[in-house]
Each structure stands twice: as structure tokens, then as C-alpha cells.
Amino acid sequence: MAQKISTPPPRRVTIDGQTYELRTITVWNDNGQSGTIDDSKPITSKVQYKPGPTINDPFPEFRDLADRTEDKATNNGWSFRPVAGPGFKKALVEGGSNSLSSQLDGDGQNQVSKDAKVPLARSQQALSKITTTKSNQELAAKNQSPDAAANGLNQAQAAQSDQEKTEGTPISTPGTGEGTIGNDAGLPKKGEILKYPEDMNANQDYITFTMVESNPRALGEGPAGAFGIGPRPKTETSLGIVILPISGPIIDSNMVGWGQAELDPLSIAGAKIFRDAALKGLNTVPGNVGTAVEDIKKSAADAAAGVTYELMAQALNKPANELLSRGNGVIINPNVELLFNGVSLRPFNFTFKMSARSYTEAIIIKKIIYFFKKGMAAKQTKSGFFLKKPYTFQIEYKHKDKEHPGINLIKQCALQNFSVNYVPDGQYASHEDGNLTAYEISMQFTELDPIYFYDYDGNHPIGY
Fold this sequence. Notes:
Layout: E1 2-6, E2 11-15, E3 18-30, E4 44-51, E5 63-68, E6 78-80, H1 86-93, H2 100-116, H3 120-127, H4 134-142, H5 162-167, E7 193-195, E8 206-212, E9 241-245, E10 256-261, H6 265-280, H7 285-298, H8 301-316, H9 320-328, E11 337-343, E12 347-355, H10 359-375, E13 379-380, E14 387-388, E15 392-399, E16 402-403, E17 413-421, E18 438-447
Parallel strand pairs: 7-9
Antiparallel strand pairs: 1-3, 2-3, 3-4, 4-5, 5-6, 8-9, 8-15, 10-11, 12-18, 13-14, 15-16, 17-18
């Protein structure tokens, strides 16, 4: 029998106007075999939260928020920690199939199903037998009311208890979490779509630009643990959508870094010595140096000559190959090879010419220009000490209102350059109301993340 801990990827939520990451931690047992869950042993589950970074805590960690209990009649089965303010409590106590509580339960059940290698139904059955520990019961007694422990204040203002001082409190540092100068005035209202032309045919292929607020990737997470960076959380909240007809050219350019590299025989020998020192200890250095010297003596005469010329070159401050080439017409073999040296971020360029055929269409065109200009602008914090990143964009090609099967996919992008040509036809012209007859916009986007092998999952005929 072995105790297991299942932790699904975190879920990003907004509570009282602040963004947090929530995750479920489930502790369960198996009987020592794959494909088993031993529900005769205690099964516990809890939810942890992680606030956004602040000046005092730039890399916050996950902290316990609430424990699952078998008493579903009280607080929807949650036993809240003192750190939980009314915002969190209200969100978790709310029931329903699409509630936050149900989503977190589903995350835990799916992860246990994967880790235990059992059907989801078996995982759900086992997790229905959550155990309430004595400490959880004591916490539940103190937190029966959804408004307890926070005294009616919002989540960022919840009063600190001794446990809060240990585990940390989701607070906002002035100038970072409490907002920025300006608001979203002029951007599309929730559910509003800016579409050009206004009478676009429903069967016409088009491209969508959805403005979102990108979520940072967590440090110290992922397969590499403390040495890795977690996946970029998905962004579901739209801050506005622009729909435009697809226009050419349509180009994607996948790039991978390869570069010429050299490693001569002496460098190879030195690398072996230091590799062994790092792996086996510094006491191996004298022996390995002696071995390398003996190998040189046993090698062909030209190898010994190469070492001699190398030492001579160092003494004369001249390149060894220059001396060898002058004296013998040879050089030391550089062992040239093309080596992989990194990945690149893909750029995407778009140009759209928009002609206003009516007053309403002229208003739409100006709103589209405003949408991109404001969305790419950096935000200044209220303290003026920080600048917050601009909004980012999800770009999708559509065919009959579905994912376009004939054009590449694009990851979330930053808009780095936006230019407007107010006289695209070469001669100034305007309507009586002052609106120009035509505008041409050019945009340069760059993806936030590189393309990796696992991105090609077979679900799209072209992929990225």
C-alpha cells in the first residue's frame, strides 16, 4: 500500500476583483498495484489558492484555503481556513453543475483517475467518501457562516489570524494589485463584436482578434519542478472581439535555431576531464590528466605534433592553426557540426484596408482602430512606480464559424506594432461628417510562447 497525492493544474479565478489560482490536492491510497484506489483508507481533499505577485512577495506559493468534508449540508461540504474571506466562501458555497465548487471537484476526480489509472466513475465513487479529520472539524466549527472570519470586508482586507500570519494572506500591494490609471472606456462592451464590413456574409471566411489579459506562467512548476516553468493558463474572459475578412498574404514562418559549432581534440579531452570531475569528484582530475597525456603519447605522431604546436602557439600568442598551416599545410580538426541552439517566437503581420460605405461603418472602423491602439498600450499603476503589461490577443481563422481547417493555428500573441495609413489611396478624401473615406491598418503580432513538438497533437490538419 502506498499513499498518493494528486494535484491537477491550477484554475485561474477572479474573486473581489483580484485574480487567484486555485488547485485541488487529493491524498489517497492504493494497495500497491497500478489501477487501484483503496477507499478503505482515509481520502482527504483540500483547495489551495495562490495570489498574484506583489513587491513583498514576487513569487507567491500556494496556501491552504478550504478542506472537503462529508457534511455536504454545511457550506456545501467545505471547511474553510481562517484565511478565507467572504469572496472565496461565497464562490465555493454556491452550488450547481457549473459552479466553482463543481469545477474544482471535477479537476480532482479527473487527476486521481489519471494517476490511479482507473475509470473516472471509479475515481468519483472513491472521492465521494472524503474523510473529515479532527483538525478539519475544529476549523469547520469556527467557520460555519460564509461571512465568518472576514467581518464583512472584501477578500483583500480579511483580518489576519495566527494561521494567516503563517500561511500568508491574499492582499494587494498598492500600485500593483489595486489597479491602474485609466479604465476600459471606449472598448467593446461585454458580448459586443466589432465587425467589418458590417454586412459581412455569414458564409464568408474571416479572422477574429479576441483581446484578453494574459496570465503569467508559474515559476517552479511543471515537469521540471523547482527548475521549471508551468504551462500558460488558459484565458477565458474576452475583453472585446474584432472580426475582419481574411486578406492576403497569409504566411506563417516556423523557425528553429541551429548554429555551426566546433570542438577540437584538445577541447574534447579537457571536457572529459571536467565532466568526470563534476560527476565523480575533483580527486579524479590528476588521474584523468595523466591518462590524457598517456593517450597523446600513444596516439599517432601527428596528434603529438598537434599538441606541440598548440603549446608553441600559446607561447607565441599566435593561433595554432596558423603555425600548422604555414609549416605543414594542415590544421587541427575542428569537428565542425551544426547544433541545435534554441527556439524562436513566430511573428505574424496583417494588413487590412477598410472603406467606409456608410456613417455607421465609419464609426465601426474608428472603433476597430481604437480597439487595437488601446489594447496594445501599457498601463501605469496608480503609484506610478510600475508599468503593467498591455492586453494580448487570441487570433483565429474561421471557416463557417468553425476553426479553419486549411490555415495554421496561432498561439496567444502580443501586438508589438500598429500603424494606420489615413490616406491609403494617395489622396486625402473625407465625407461631409468628417469621416475619412478609407483607412489602412497594419499590425505586427508575436506569439507569447514558442511552438513545441507536443503542440502538434493531431487535432488540426495543419497545426501551428
